[in-house]
Design goal:
1 helix
Length: 138
Amino acid sequence: MKKPERIEKDGKVFAEVIWAGTRVETTHFFSRPESSFQFGLLAHPAGFDEPAHYHHPFVRQIEDLQQMFVMQRGKVAVDLYDDHGKKFREIILGPGDAIVLMHGAHGLRVLETFQAISVKQGPFLGTEKDKVFIRTKN
């Protein structure tokens, strides 16, 4: 069984991965508490009952846009690039794997026709305002 992985370079967290076989006994978040996007696994024994609740609304200022993929089928390669556009890591994801992309640039190569749940902070401002394409150095 692979363990969850935090991918860092030069003191910055670029991504966090929860591999499909990861198991926890109790709820555990892998992201740091100060992260603008919380990433973890919920786990409770049969019979657990959480009372109905909501979360206190308050203004949060988010200056980064993180994105999460939860693979449902197929296979993709996620390439991570440092602040200079140099690729430093390739991560192959398959069904059940999940990744949060946190810092730096990333590219996606489809190895097998895939489907993933994608989650990111909104609002979505459109591709022309949301995405910055970079020149990469492999």
